[in-house]
Specification:
By secondary structure, the chain is α+β, with helices and mostly antiparallel strands. The chain contains 12 helices and 20 strands. Helix content is about 30%, strand content about 25%.
């Protein structure tokens, strides 16, 4: 009977976190949250240990436990009480993880005056101030250039909004109305989580709740250890590169040691932090490690505090994967996180060659836009999908978000209804997937045209120089390209940059395809013909394979 109750509580917590995400999405104002679903939610015990998380954004979810632990420690250090009927807001990446746009809101949950849990969520706000619309620049030299920084502070006290904090947060954005609405949606999500946790405690009692949590930790740890036992023991190394805005390669290096009951991930040899926004706070680095091993372990391993106890991460302070405040980090969350996942997958492809796919497109392809429209400032943010890498038994998926992100593209109707933009092209990118017995997925072509006025566009992308790698004889995927059309003249530009567009000018991004898997000559002819008929490849590429 006890085991049965434990399972009910465990599953109830998971679905509670999913319901938190639904409440957040349905209440949000911005397209980035209500359409792209750029948010995540989780529930923790009173010590800040992860109990359950929704299937949201990997880079958010992996950093939430690290951020909650840091927030609790910060409040203890600053003599700030964790109060009943309160909520805490924080976005300082060196405390909360990720970057300034990702705002974390935390709700302490009490039962009979006793702290029993936390509900928490993280949502990407489309603009948080800073030097460019959308707040993610390509050339910031410190965190202070990236927007408003908030250390942990009470957003709600005694059940009421702290109006000073709410106003300060909203007015520092180019779209204060959206910011306020999205923040209220985050509050609604946490109240949903609190309600569900209290229902569980009311039904089964606090003792059963706490025992179920300990049991869940133990089970997850046991399952993880059983998966580690199946991996070939040894040391596996890899290196990959980020592309600096200045044109210089930034090296990421890892050695993964697989032991009998432990996995050690050591980033010794990785380059030092840089004076551009590609630094990734340690919470982001943790996220990448947890995401890759979570995917390799399989869905039968539940995700909670116990899942990752056997994984040890070593990253020297002052490196690009563990920078020192106030190094800029806006792009570390979105781009370095992706390269970190590629890096770990590449190393693990030597230990688990049949389970690891070829590289995905390797970028979130961040598009930030803004300007003045109908006498109001506006800011827009979205990321564009890529091709996934081919794997042992099937092709890579075409045109989806990969690895550390799990969002959607913004619907064209939403953009054209509310912004001075027209989407003139949105399609799969022909010939972008790497050739292989199982081809890489195709990237995406998306073109934005300015309908009226002037628009500032910032793009922060990757894989413009280093192609997504193939595996087992598969060929690399195509690299990212950005094209501007100004005064009806078309030219390629850097994939990291800020550009000013006027009426009838356009901005085009062509995202990277996934790497191929296996010898291209072994691809069945019927699949090649199918690729041709669907526009995934051209006649010229067909001749290279048949």
């Amino acid at each position: 009977m006890e085991q049965f109750v434990n399972q009910i509580i465990r599953n109830s917590l998971f679905y509670s976190s999913e319901e938190m995400g639904i409440a957040l999405r349905n209440s949000a104002y911005s397209p980035n949250i209500k359409e792209r679903m750029d948010h995540s939610a989780a529930i923790f015990d009173s010590e800040g240990r992860l109990l359950a998380q929704a299937e949201h954004i990997p880079v958010h979810l992996g950093s939430l436990p690290w951020g909650l632990k840091n927030t609790i420690e910060y409040m203890e250090r600053e003599s700030l009480e964790i109060e009943k009927n309160s909520m805490i807001i924080v976005n300082n990446p060196y405390i909360a993880g990720t970057h300034l746009n990702d705002v974390t809101v935390i709700r302490p949950i009490f039962s009979n005056e006793k702290l029993i849990a936390f509900s928490a969520n993280k949502a990407h706000h489309s603009d948080i101030g800073g030097k460019v619309p959308g707040s993610i620049s390509f050339d910031a030299k410190s965190l202070y250039e990236e927007g408003l920084i908030i250390n942990p502070v009470l957003l709600i006290r005694n059940g009421e909004f702290n109006r000073d904090v709410f106003s300060l947060f909203s007015i520092n954005s180019r779209n204060p109305y959206e910011r306020g609405g999205d923040l209220k949606a985050q509050v609604a999500a946490n109240l949903t989580g609190e309600k569900r946790v209290k229902e569980i405690v009311d039904k089964y009692g606090i003792k059963a709740f706490e025992e179920a949590n300990i049991s869940a930790f133990s089970y997850a740890e046991k399952m993880t250890l059983s998966k580690i036992e199946l991996i070939k023991k040894g040391n596996y190394e890899a290196q990959d590169f980020l592309e600096s805005p200045k044109g210089k390669d930034i090296k990421l290096q890892v050695k993964i040691s697989i032991g009998n009951r432990e996995i050690k991930v050591d980033y010794n040899g990785t380059d030092m932090q840089v004076d551009s926004p590609l630094n990734a706070v340690f919470g982001v680095t943790i996220s990448g490690v947890h995401f890759v091993f979570r995917s390799l372990f399989g869905e039968d391993v539940p995700v909670n505090y116990g899942t990752f106890k056997a994984i040890k991460i070593i990253a020297n302070k002052g490196t690009i994967v563990n920078p020192i405040f106030p190094a800029p980090v806006a792009g570390g969350n979105v781009e370095t996180s992706q390269r970190n996942a590629d890096l770990i997958y590449l190393a693990m492809s030597k230990a688990l060659p049949d389970k690891v796919p070829a590289a995905a497109g390797g970028s979130m392809n961040n598009i930030m836009m803004g300007g003045l429209y109908k006498n109001k400032t506006w800011a827009f943010y979205e990321t564009i999908g890529v091709g996934l890498g081919g794997r042992k038994s099937m092709d890579g998926i075409d045109g989806v978000h990969s690895n550390m992100t799990n969002t959607m593209n913004t619907p064209i109707e939403e953009i054209e209804k509310n912004l001075p933009l027209i989407i003139t092209k949105y399609e799969f990118r022909t010939n972008s997937g790497g050739l292989g017995e199982h081809r890489g997925g195709c990237g995406i072509v998306r073109v934005y045209k300015v309908r009226e006025g002037s628009v500032t566009v910032t793009v922060l992308s990757e894989r413009g120089i280093h192609s997504p790698w193939g595996l087992q004889g598969g060929l690399p995927g195509s690299r990212t390209e950005v094209i501007l059309t100004k005064n009806y003249k078309r030219r390629k530009v850097r994939i990291k940059g800020t550009y000013n567009l006027n009426e009838n000018d356009s901005f085009e991004i062509r995202t990277a395809g996934g790497g191929g898997y296996g010898n291209p000559s072994k691809r069945p002819k019927d699949l090649i013909i199918n690729d041709l008929e669907n526009g995934f490849i051209s006649y010229n590429r067909r001749r290279r394979q048949i």
